[in-house]
From TrEMBL:
Statement: the UniProt record of this protein carries the keyword Hydrolase: yes
Bound cofactor: record note: Manganese or magnesium. Binds 1 divalent metal ion per monomer in the absence of substrate. May bind a second metal ion after substrate binding.
Catalyses which reaction(s): Endonucleolytic cleavage to 5'-phosphomonoester
Annotated compartments: Cytoplasm
The protein's name: Ribonuclease
Database matches in NCBIfam families: PRK00015.1-3
Gene3D superfamilies assigned: Ribonuclease H-like superfamily/Ribonuclease H (3.30.420.10)
Biological classification of the source: Bacteria, Bacillati, Actinomycetota, Actinomycetes, Micrococcales
Length: 216
């Protein structure tokens, strides 16, 4: 069954109910064993233009199509940003706190760009609000299951964050070669685990996530 295009139905309802901005928010890299976790945000407001053709949740797009759509999505929204928490922070803080830290960094960039955070509603993919607890004075956060699939602002955030994180992991091959970063982007695979067994963990690895005792 074909996947329906994302819409602005939820965003327009929130804008109509009084929000000045809606900030679509999604995470990337949560399940990886290496590299940062990234949180993308994209800001829309009343009068937002038609959704870019082909925009989807990043997981539903090929790598080539994500690369094509990322700049289009960034130009479509009022502002976008990606916050990251690195592997050391994931190990030290735990994944949920690291997600919150990355989200906080993305929202700081939004604030510094002149978007009123407390005039906004953050539309967060999923059913668990891991963002509010990370913020001293949080805006309203509304969780929506499958928002990355159904809500265009969140789909845009997903694509933008995925492309930025993927590029970082591809570039890491020049500094920490041998792990197959261009192919695995830090996610676990048989070849990736074989490389860790041969070379040992790199500084990019989340050491607490390496389940094989000999690799810790």
């Amino acid at each position: 069954m074909p996947v329906a295009d994302p819409t602005l139905r939820v965003e327009r309802s929130l804008l109509k109910s009084g929000a000045r901005y809606v900030i679509g928010c999604d995470e990337v890299g949560r399940g990886a064993i290496a590299g940062p976790v990234a949180v993308g945000v994209s800001v829309v407001e009343a009068g937002v233009r038609a959704i870019p053709t082909g925009l989807r949740d990043s997981k539903l797009l090929s790598e080539k199509r994500r690369e094509e759509l990322a700049p289009v999505a960034a130009a479509w929204v009022r502002f976008s940003a990606v916050g990251m928490a690195d592997a050391e922070e994931v190990d030290r803080l735990g994944i949920m706190a690291a997600l919150g830290l990355a989200g906080k960094r993305a929202l700081i960039a939004v604030h510094e760009a002149g978007v009123g955070i407390h005039e906004s509603v953050v539309l967060l993919d999923g059913k668990h609000d891991w963002l509010t607890v990370a913020l001293t004075k949080p805006p309203r956060v509304q969780t929506v299951v499958k928002a990355d699939r159904d809500c265009a602002s969140v789909a845009a955030a997903s694509v933008i964050a995925k492309v930025q994180r993927d590029r970082l992991m591809i570039d890491a091959d020049a500094f920490h070669p041998g792990y197959g970063w261009p192919g695995n982007k830090g996610y676990g695979s048989a070849d990736h685990f074989a490389a860790i067994e041969s070379l040992g963990p790199s500084p990019l690895h989340r050491h607490t996530w390496l389940k094989q005792p000999a690799l810790i």
